[in-house]
Design brief:
mainly alpha, Arc Repressor Mutant, subunit A, 3 strands, globular, WH_DNA-bd_sf
Length: about 120
């Protein structure tokens, strides 16, 4: 692998390391035109993560959305209060793996080592 590929992987894994950011992207992937108003996004992510929307709103607004925006994975329009996701190939592949990992089909096919 080249250094650029490794750098891209490192950056993508860092972005997706937080479950809230993964939830933001999962929600936006299924949103019409990949865009949602911030309040709707907060509610959907709070439901996905099992968190209080009021507490989550600040974390998304101040930390997670700017990080995703800085990485050019989402467009966070603070003025209009809209977040837009336009498919990012490496992020998409990683999110597909996450969905596969969570699926019942994957769980039935996995084998966990027996504890001794």
């Amino acid at each position: 692998m080249t250094d650029d590929v490794d750098d891209d992987l490192d950056a993508t894994f860092e972005l997706l390391a937080d479950r809230r950011r993964r939830a933001v992207l999962q929600v936006l992937r299924t949103a019409p035109r990949g865009a949602l108003e911030l309040s709707a996004l907060v509610d959907a992510v709070a439901t996905e993560c099992g968190e209080d929307p009021d507490a989550l709103a600040s974390a998304l607004h101040e930390r997670h959305l700017p990080k995703l925006d800085d990485a050019d994975v989402v467009e966070f329009d603070r003025e209009d209060g809209v977040v837009t996701y336009d498919s990012h190939p490496l992020v998409e592949r990683c999110l597909d793996v996450v969905q596969s990992y969570r699926s019942d089909e994957w769980m039935r096919g996995s084998s966990k080592p027996e504890s001794k």
